[in-house]
Every structure is written in structure tokens, then in C-alpha cells.
Design goal:
357 residues; mainly beta; Immunoglobulin-like; 3 domains; five-stranded antiparallel beta sheet; DUF6209; Fibronectin type-III domain-containing protein; carbohydrate metabolism; FN3_sf
């Protein structure tokens, strides 16, 4: 027995939909297959960090099957910035003096996939002289010879000279200073931001090895000739500079240590360039060679710092020892930039070893 039934509204709609899809395929051809969602993460960026303040993070462009759209920057495990894909660096000004920071960089693509985070070796910020708007002055950390000190100056302390020109600020503030009564030096304490407004800039002051006293004051000026000072009523701000532990590598192949190598302190390395006389090449009329100190804290990675300037003169290098550091291993290399000549000073391959207290 056959049963004839009236089609339901839903079944009619399904049949019409099938007919419309068939007609569409006949007219326009088969539809292109929908591409699979992008699930491939970018490669981890090759990154490095350096500085004492601001602390700077640099990275090479990450690789992805689609475009990398941004990079995320982390400090001590927390994200502090997202920067566009065409950026390859980030400079961190929001620091506390004499504090350890660990940075990381992560790439992000258009689909939201994230690379593994590249975590960098910890960096220690320089000691900080902070001059807040309440007219006080504070020291974060210990001022130490051979390390820079950072100055953080609140612009509200000098409010008078504030001319503007062509839509931007036409004034600035400098910190002027001298070490041990020597010549006056100057560093900008403000910088123009993207809106052409003056904002506080961390000003690094150089404290040479052997320095004992720091004296500083602040000067504000604008294009009208207005000048204003913050100098503790003419007495200036004065600070005592401590002496670091110094290990010296002398021309006669002796080594000497002044002080104790301590955890969470600075070790300053002085090196006489006469110990490595090889590879003394010239490049464009200038010394085409340099000497580096290589060092390793415990079983960590090998790190390096430059020991000579552009004229081939010796520079002291500072090594920040972490709170957990128990052993410091040091060696040296001279490198000729023309012939790629190399020679080493490494205590006959054993390297120079120092235990911390």
C-alpha cells in the first residue's frame, strides 16, 4: 500500500537549496576549496639584550609561512609591549635602579599563532638617581666607579621655560655634572616623544674607574632665552662614589685582584693591551683590530664585552654577577678585522677562574 503525503516546508527548502547549488556550480564552475586555517607558528626570534639604562632588546625578523604581524616583549615574565612587525628593537625606560631584569621576545602572525618565547640572559640596570616632582632626591642602588649612573628627572620641577614652536615643545632640560671637580659635562634629561612633547629621558652619567665624588644640577631653557635651574639653592646635588672590585691583567703577565669577588656585585676587568700584540691591522687609517673579554658565570652561556675603543686604547669592562653566581671564568681574544686573525689569552687554555664569596 502506498501512502502519499504532502512535503513539509523544511524538505521543500532543502530541495530548493540543492537545486540552487547545482545551478550555481553549472554556471560558475565548482567552488574553490576552503583553505585550511593557518596553524603554523612563527619561528622564535633570534634576540639579544644589552645596556644599563635604558635596557635594550634587539631581535632578527622571525620566519613564518604567513606574515609576522607583531612582536611581544616580556620583562620578568610579564608582557610590557607589543610592537609592529617592522620593528626590531625595544628600549625599556621604566626601570628601577640596580635591579635584575629578564626579557623575552615572541613573534605573532596574522592568524594569531605565536612563536616560542626567546628568553634572554638577565641584565642588571644601573643605579638610579631619582628626582621626583616632590623636590626630593633618592638613590636606588650604589653609585660605583666604572659603571654609569642613570638620572630620572621629573620635568615638573622646572616648569617656567615652556615655549612652543610649530606645534611642538621648544624647550629642554639638561643635567650638568662633574666628577671629582673635573670639567662640566652635560646630558639631556628630556626627549621629544612622537607627539613632539618633551618627556623625561633617563640620562646616563659616566663614572670612570677611580672616581670618588659626583656633583650635578639641572638647567631648563627654551627658544626665548628663558633659563631656570634646579641646584639645591646653588649648593648642587653631591654623591659619594664607591670603588668596585677590580681584577687587573698586567703587561708583565701578572694578575692582581683589588677587593673580593662578591655575588650580586660588579667585577671590573682592566686589561693591558700589550698582552695581546698580535693582529694589529689597519683599516681605513684606523686600528682594524679589537680585544674582547669573554666570560661565563657558573655553567651559563659565554658572554663578551669590548675592551678597546676605536683608537685601540684600553677600556675597563664591567661584569654584573648574579645573586646565585659562585664562579666566574674569564679569557681574552684579539681579532683582526682585515685578515680575521685571532689570538687568545686564556692561561694556556685553562681560563682565569674566580670564586665568589
Amino acid at each position: 500500500m502506498q501512502h502519499n503525503s504532502t512535503p513539509t516546508t523544511a524538505s521543500v527548502i532543502r530541495r530548493v537549496s540543492v537545486l540552487l547549488l547545482a545551478a550555481s556550480a553549472a554556471l560558475f564552475g565548482a567552488a574553490a576549496p576552503v583553505s585550511a586555517a593557518d596553524t603554523t607558528a612563527p619561528t622564535a626570534p633570534d634576540a639579544s639584550a644589552e645596556g644599563a639604562g635604558p635596557l635594550s632588546v634587539y631581535w632578527a625578523t622571525a620566519v613564518d609561512d604567513d606574515d609576522v604581524t607583531a612582536y611581544r616583549v616580556f620583562r620578568n615574565g610579564r608582557q610590557i609591549a607589543t610592537v609592529p612587525a617592522d620593528a626590531n628593537s625595544y628600549h625599556d625606560h621604566a626601570l628601577t635602579g640596580n635591579t635584575w631584569y629578564t626579557y623575552g621576545v615572541q613573534a605573532v602572525d596574522a592568524a594569531g599563532n605565536t612563536s616560542p618565547t626567546t628568553t634572554l640572559q638577565p641584565l642588571k640596570s644601573a643605579p638610579l638617581l631619582r628626582f621626583p616632582a616632590d623636590r626630593d632626591d633618592r638613590v636606588e642602588g650604589v653609585l660605583e666607579a666604572s659603571r654609569p649612573v642613570l638620572v630620572d628627572f621629573a620635568t615638573d620641577r622646572l616648569p617656567k621655560c615652556r615655549s612652543r614652536y610649530a606645534g611642538g615643545d621648544a624647550w629642554s632640560i639638561n643635567v650638568e655634572y662633574r666628577v671629582d671637580g673635573g670639567p662640566v659635562q652635560s646630558q639631556p634629561a628630556t626627549r621629544l616623544n612622537d607627539d613632539r612633547r618633551q618627556v623625561t629621558a633617563l640620562a646616563p652619567l659616566s663614572l670612570p674607574l677611580g672616581a670618588r665624588n659626583l656633583e650635578l644640577w639641572f638647567v631648563s631653557g627654551d627658544i626665548t632665552g628663558c633659563t631656570e635651574y634646579d641646584s639645591r639653592f646653588g649648593a648642587n646635588y653631591r654623591y659619594t662614589i664607591e670603588q668596585p672590585t677590580v681584577v687587573s691583567f698586567n703587561a708583565d703577565w701578572s694578575e692582581s685582584l683589588t677587593g673580593q669577588v662578591r655575588k650580586d656585585q660588579t667585577l671590573t676587568v682592566r686589561y693591558d693591551v700589550a698582552r695581546l700584540p698580535q693582529c694589529r691591522e689597519t683599516l681605513r687609517g684606523m686600528p682594524g683590530w679589537h680585544i674582547d673579554v669573554f666570560y661565563r658565570l657558573d655553567d651559563g652561556p659565554t658572554l663578551a664585552k669590548r675592551l678597546t675603543d676605536h683608537d685601540g686604547e684600553a677600556l675597563p669592562a664591567t661584569i654584573d654577577l648574579q645573586p646565585s653566581t659562585s664562579r666566574v671564568e674569564i679569557w681574552f681574544r684579539v681579532y683582526g678585522q682585515v685578515s680575521r686573525c685571532t689570538a687568545y689569552d686564556s692561561d694556556h687554555g685553562r681560563n682565569y677562574i674566580y670564586q665568589t664569596v
